[in-house]
Amino acid sequence: MATEKPGRPIYRQGAKENSLRRRARRATASGRLLLPGLFATFIVAAGASFLADHYQAPVMLFALLLGMALGFLHEEGRAVPGIDFTATVVLRLGVALLGLRITLDEVTALGAGPVLLVIAAVVLTLLFGILCSTLLGRGRHFGLLSGGSVGICGASAALALAAVLPRNDRSERDTIFAVISVTALSTLAMIAYPLVANRLGLSDSEAGLFLGGTIHDVAQVVGAAYSMSPATGDAATVVKVLRVAMLVPTIFVLSVIYRRGRSSSASSSSAIPLPLFIVAFAVLVAVNSMGVVPSPLRDHLVATSQWCLVAAIAALGMKTSLRELATVGWRPLSIVIAETAFLAVVVLVGIRWLAAGGPEWLLPV
Question: Do 338 and 125 meet the contact criterion of CB atoms below 8 Å apart?
Answer without folding.
Answer: no
